[in-house]
# Entry
Amino acid sequence: MKKTLIGFALAWALSLSSIAASAAEQQHHSLWSLKGKTNTVYLLGSVHFLNASEKFPSVLEDAYRDAEVLLMEIDMDDLDPAETQRVTLELGMQPAGQSLQQQLGAPTYAKLETRAREVGIDPALLNRFRPWFAGMTLMQLQLMKMGLQPDSGVEQRFTTRATADKKPIHGLETLREQLSMLAGLPEKQQREFLLYSIEDADRMEEEIDDLLSAWRRGDTKALTQLLAEGFDRYPDLYRPLTTDRNRRWLSQVEDLLDDRDDYLVVVGTLHLVGKDSLIDLLEGKGHRVSQH
# Structure
């Protein structure tokens, strides 16, 4: 269950130190491409938190250079900070008169207070958060404590470069749509994720290393196994967050194949592996998708 929960978190808004890989293992990357009528569409599996020293392999750099347009889960270069804060607080805060302490009970809330102080946040701030938002906040702060930064993640790096290079960025969904899916998770699943971020932080680094290693190698078998574990244990959680979104995104990706521009599509890595992934759905429609 622990790896399932960390897999969910990292697939969504987080990620990730490396395990040495042989030259043979480095033959693949978390990058795929397919040919349109007159263009190429690249599909890149993303991790959202990385170390600033992380170097992208040349195939990722080449895909970025080839692409005239980027397509991400949300339109990263047009995010309004004030609107982002408003939507996040609207969906992430407890209703008036309710608190996280009431939901969790005294023993669990005491653990939350200890954990919050360890990652440098006042527990009183978390008390007004809904479980999904409190868990995500603790996870992100833990990742930053480990030296992993959102500004160094795949999307943010390419957003910074695309802005400087005047390459357009479009979104597959809006920020409100994305956060509404998290806010709409069953309370039971929200609490389980929060409890993991409170109680199992010591195991997080090892699990993050495993996930990042698989991402760097383009190890679809390992990534697919991670996703399968999640589906087996939490089908009602994973279905709306992964496969349902993949199906909604499919037509948008297919439409790119009629364009003249080359595209770089950047989505969470677990959207590109396993049954009913974007890759699987595209192949099911007769498209030939090649891993780099």
